[in-house]
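Hi all, a correction to my earlier message: I attached the wrong file for 28S ribosomal protein S21, mitochondrial. Here's the right sequence:
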Amino acid sequence: MTPVLLTQFPLIKPLKSMLRQTNHIIKIKPYSVSSALPLLIFVIKICDDNALETVKNWTFLLDKHGPATVRIIVASIGLSGLYFFCRSIRLVRRFSCFKTVNDIPDEFFKKHIRLRGIVSNVDWKGRLVVSHIPIVKLPFTGNQDSEVLIHLAAVNLEESGINWLRHNLLNNYIKFELLCKNEIDNSAVCDVSVKYKTLPMMMKNVNREIVRRGLGQVINYTDNEHIKALHMIPRYNRLVQNLLLSESYADKRGVGKWKRPKLVEAVSGYPSQIVDLVKNSNIFIFLQICYTAAKEGAIKYKRNLKFMYKFRQPFGHPLFRGITRAHQRFINKTVLVKDNNVEEALKILNKKMSQEKLLEIYRRTRYYEKPYQQRNQYSFEICKAIYNEDMNRKIALISRKNRPDRWPGQY
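and the right structure:
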């Protein structure tokens, strides 16, 4: 048998990492036997013929018990994985129904697990009473009563905000992300989302919607629990930053709590001390006295006018548009003159007509182009002209004869 150099074969190079020689004895690393068994047999055959029987025994054992060993190892790994999966959060979240906040594990709050449920009530503090719904409902479990108290994270609600929650979230499906637990009132501080009515596939954040509408504001920095959550929970910090942006948007729009008063309301909202100073000033008192005197004088003047109108009714007739035509006998008596003095009669007649405010009608009437020269005839013609003028106006009003909207042939 001719000696063979091991370095001549390219298969020997991978074996350098698996072989080590001490005192001219070749030792094999145990973890590499199964992966390079053919190569080892070849090397051992060359090096030592006695070791071949040992290797054959090992291979016989592996062929006999190897499949069973592999199956046992795989089954044990699968069972251990199934055990850890059953204890995992995902399985608990899928099948568990939490009745109160105390039933929720603390690990859920640390990992900010998102749960779902239906809002059954909104209390006077603005907390949501949610009936928790598991993702996978097991058969034959029945309906389980659940009342999980949820507080909107980092939001201080107004009365209008509580009414908005009752109107929009009652008996609606929501999703709430657990941020922390409030030990004082035994509630969960959550970031709540609800579906749009117009777009059911999309969700809107209730916390931001409340602040955006001006129905609430971000909690003040004097609250110790709020400050602690800001430093300890990064997701709570990001939510507060978004809420501050929504609050500035509501302040710029002037909606809800940030609604600005009108000009009249702003003027009336000045400090009461300035209003008292103005009311007690001398100028204001003088103007108030003048206003009272003018008001009383106007009332008395109106009463006197009514009395004068009633007093002169026996001496005249009310005409169209407030024109008063004096009685014929009254005018005839006032213009009687001696010796048939026409000039004196016209002078007195014009004076009386100017006093009665009838001179304009006299000047615009065609009956005075050629007046009569007989005794006392002027007064008769003047009264007749006034009467005709009044009748013409009334006829024009009734028949629309002089109106631009009349049609041809209308009287």
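Sorry for the mix-up. The first strand starts at residue 19 and ends at 22.
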